[in-house]
């Protein structure tokens, strides 16, 4: 019954079980919930109490809609309403990533000051590199002192009123100049979010171009601010990822062990849970309670964080959070912030599973709250693990699908540099060369969520298969990466099976999968870094917008995805979203996003629900970029005779 709901082999039996036992899941709720025809296309305004104004305007052209069509009570046109809603999504997404980033910086500083047992400064090489970027001389400095300086400097990015974000300098020179000219370089992260909320309140900014102008600035505060800071400092604190092998899907749960799932986003919590699960006393305690061990696995981006750095297995992506509980094998699901469904405690009631909330910012009725603070994080983590062990004996019947598969993760920007360039010549040269010689057509980032409006994982897998078949190297983050991992695409063997001949050859030579897992959603900043490195390496133009690259989120659902999409568009990329697009109710505003915007930043949005068409939209875009770069034709093979050889200069 469930085939059109999901293509995930572990999710299908769990959905059947849910149906047989009368357990309602997100898939049922989605089916029942009729999509609002106004909200889904961005034309419902509830920014004041004269409304809500739902203005689905008929009209063939922008003019008919904007000047003759129905407007809100205040007179707001459909374009203004759609742009306001879109900008607020950018603000919310930026806020989520950046508040995560802020927690990381604060903990980073405390760790460097020695006030947080369990946390430490692990990656000194990256610490020194970041210090240099910030203009701090790392020479002869104690690593902790240096880390305090770095942390405090980055913290100023959040509250700065004037000036520029620190990491903006990571963008190519030409791009920075363009942003400066356009006036969209973010000043401070918090300021840009606040300004969107102000501009979009009743009676302020009423020109969709102007609203999106601030949308661009705010989104850049996410990409080059909150997200990039989170990635950088998480790497320094917990280690910069290197390639490792692990397993994915619900089959990673173990029948004879205490299963603890960490779910949410901030690795500050999950790192400590991983540490606590190795505590000999707790392992002993688990044994005394009849368990063969303590098995940690992850859901959503928390999963990606601990997968990337420790190889901890992934239980599933966003739409599997409820299904994991339905296995009956989960003693505790520990959650922090973001993408945690309120449906969890309802399902947990049918089993022995305890949902444990940990963030002061994110509480849920019907759960247990263990408030997590950096200064006693390890102790709290141990208390939580102990509680889960105590719960082991209360298990009822267990039903773990026998489905898990290998994956390779751990491709940080530094790793790509090292892997492709070799240990003596770390560089992006080989990647650029392989793009120039046509073995690799281009690079596409396939990222984002799951959405029950569309078959779980189907669009991700179909899109990525089509891309690699056409010699496009795919980089992934978030739940998209988990989807493709479950389909076996994140292994070196996948190159031979699915990739086109050029890409397969490169992958086989270097020993990498055709689909590279770069981490969690804040780690989309790694894609920005990789693109900067490609430009800096030379031969592919002098700005992001020259690169044969694109991005997609075929199953997106979160506001965070919109913020990410917008910072790539602001950076000059083509970004394609599936499912629904929250602006299509306005002809003018969607034309601006889908077309006109390219003239401003070189980047634009597109909307396509068919995964194969989506792939070819991006492939066509990449081909156009290749033509513009003059690398569309394969170099002629010339047979050299002796005379020609003598002319060769080395
Ligand atoms: Ni990203 Fe991560 Fe997944 Fe979507 Fe949610 S976990 S931050 S928002 S659902 S990819």
Q: What is the total tally of β strands?
A: 16
What proportion strand? 5-15%
Helix percent reads 40-55%
- What shape does the CA trace take? globular
What is the count of DSSP helices, taking H or I runs of 4+ residues? 26
Bound molecules: FE(4)-NI(1)-S(5) cluster
**Which spans of ≥5 residues are poorly predicted at pLDDT below 50?**
none
Averaging pLDDT over every residue, what do you get? 94
What structural class results from the helix and strand content?
alpha/beta
The top level CATH class name of the largest domain: Alpha Beta
Fold-level CATH name of the largest domain: Rossmann fold
Report on the biggest sheet. Answer: 6 strands, parallel
Gyration radius, in Å: 25 Å
CATH architecture descriptor text of the largest domain: 3-Layer(aba) Sandwich
Widest β-sheet, arrangement of strands: 6-5-4-7-8-9
Overall tally of domains: 4
Name the features:
650 residues, alpha/beta, Substrate Binding Domain Of Dnak, Chain:A, Domain 2, Rossmann fold, 4 domains, 6-stranded parallel β-sheet, binds FE(4)-NI(1)-S(5) cluster
Describe it for me?
- There is one protein chain.
- Helices cover 48% and strands 10% of the residues.
- With 650 residues, it is of the alpha/beta class.
- The chain has four domains: 67 residues, no CATH class; 161 residues, Up-down Bundle (Substrate Binding Domain Of Dnak, Chain:A, Domain 2), CATH 1.20.1270.30; 151 residues, Rossmann fold (3-Layer(aba) Sandwich); 220 residues, Rossmann fold (3-Layer(aba) Sandwich), CATH 3.40.50.2030.
- The chain has a six-stranded parallel beta sheet. It has a six-stranded parallel beta sheet with strand order 13-12-11-14-15-16, sandwiched between helices.
- It is built from 26 helices and 16 strands.
- The chain is globular.
- A hairpin with a 7-residue loop joins strand 1 and strand 2.
- The chain starts with 10 loop residues before the first helix and ends with a helix.
- The longest helix is centred in the N-terminal third of the chain and has 35 residues.
- Bound molecules: FE(4)-NI(1)-S(5) cluster.
- FE(4)-NI(1)-S(5) cluster (NFS) binds next to helix 12 and helix 19.
């Amino acid at each position: 019954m469930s085939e059109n709901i999901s293509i995930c082999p572990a999710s299908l039996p769990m959905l059947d079980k849910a149906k047989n036992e009368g357990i309602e899941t997100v898939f049922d709720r989605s089916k029942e919930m009729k999509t609002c025809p106004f909200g889904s296309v961005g034309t419902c305004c509830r920014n004041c109490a004269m409304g809500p104004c739902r203005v689905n305007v008929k009209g063939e052209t922008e003019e008919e809609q904007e000047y003759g069509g129905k407007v809100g009570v205040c007179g707001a046109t459909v374009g203004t309403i759609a742009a306001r809603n879109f900008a607020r999504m950018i603000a919310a997404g930026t806020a989520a990533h950046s508040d995560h980033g802020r927690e990381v910086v604060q903990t980073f500083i405390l760790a460097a000051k020695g006030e947080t047992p369990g946390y430490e400064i692990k990656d000194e090489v990256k610490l020194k590199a970041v210090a240099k970027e910030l203009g701090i001389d790392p020479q002869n400095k104690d690593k902790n002192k240096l880390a305090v300086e770095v942390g405090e400097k980055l913290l100023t990015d959040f509250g700065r009123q004037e000036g520029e974000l620190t990491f903006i300098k990571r963008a190519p020179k030409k791009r920075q100049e363009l942003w400066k000219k356009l006036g969209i370089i973010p000043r401070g992260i918090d300021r840009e979010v606040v300004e969107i909320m102000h501009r979009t309140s009743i009676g302020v900014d009423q020109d969709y171009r102007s609203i999106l102008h601030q949308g661009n600035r705010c989104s850049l505060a996410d990409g080059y601010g909150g997200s990039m800071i989170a990635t950088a400092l998480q790497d320094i604190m917990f280690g910069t990822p290197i390639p490792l092998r692990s397993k994915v899907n619900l089959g990673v749960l173990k029948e004879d062990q205490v299963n603890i799932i960490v779910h949410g986003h901030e690795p500050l919590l999950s790192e400590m849970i991983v540490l606590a699960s190795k505590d000999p006393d707790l392992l002993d305690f688990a044994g005394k309670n009849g368990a063969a061990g303590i098995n940690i696995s992850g859901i959503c981006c928390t999963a990606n964080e601990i997968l990337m750095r420790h190889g901890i297995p992934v239980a599933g992506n966003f739409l599997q959070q409820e299904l994991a509980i339905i296995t009956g094998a989960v003693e505790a699901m520990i959650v922090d912030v973001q993408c945690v469904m309120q449906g969890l405690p309802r399902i947990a009631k049918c089993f022995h599973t305890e949902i444990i909330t940990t963030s002061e910012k994110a509480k849920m009725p019907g759960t247990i709250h263990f408030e997590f603070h950096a200064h006693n994080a390890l102790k709290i983590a141990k208390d939580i693990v102990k509680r889960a062990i105590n719960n082991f004996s209360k298990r009822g019947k267990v039903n773990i699908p026998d489905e898990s598969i290998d994956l390779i993760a751990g491709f940080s920007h530094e790793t790509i540099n090292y892997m492709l360039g070799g240990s003596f010549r770390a560089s992006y040269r080989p990647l650029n060369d392989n793009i120039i010689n046509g073995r690799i057509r281009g690079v596409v980032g396939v990222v984002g969520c799951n959405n029950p409006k569309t078959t779980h994982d189907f669009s991700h897998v179909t899109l990525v298969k089509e891309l690699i078949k056409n010699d496009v190297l795919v980089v992934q983050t978030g739940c998209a990466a988990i989807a493709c991992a479950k389909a076996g695409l994140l292994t070196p063997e996948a190159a031979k099976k699915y990739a086109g001949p050029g890409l397969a050859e490169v992958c086989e030579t270097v020993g990498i999968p055709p689909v590279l897992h770069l981490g969690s959603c804040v780690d989309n900043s790694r894609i920005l870094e990789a693109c900067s490195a490609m430009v800096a390496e030379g031969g592919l133009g002098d700005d992001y917008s020259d690169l044969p690259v694109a991005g997609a989120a075929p199953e997106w659902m979160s506001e965070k995805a919109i913020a990410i999409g917008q910072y790539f568009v602001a950076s000059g990329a083509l970004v394609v979203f599936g499912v629904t697009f929250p602006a299509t109710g306005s002809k003018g505003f969607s034309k601006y996003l889908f077309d006109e915007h390219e003239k401003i930043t070189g980047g634009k949005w597109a909307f396509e629900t068919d995964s194969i068409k989506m792939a070819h939209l991006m492939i066509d875009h990449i081909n156009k970029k290749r033509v513009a770069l003059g690398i569309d034709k394969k170099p002629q093979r010339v047979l050299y005779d002796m005379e020609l050889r003598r002319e060769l200069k080395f």
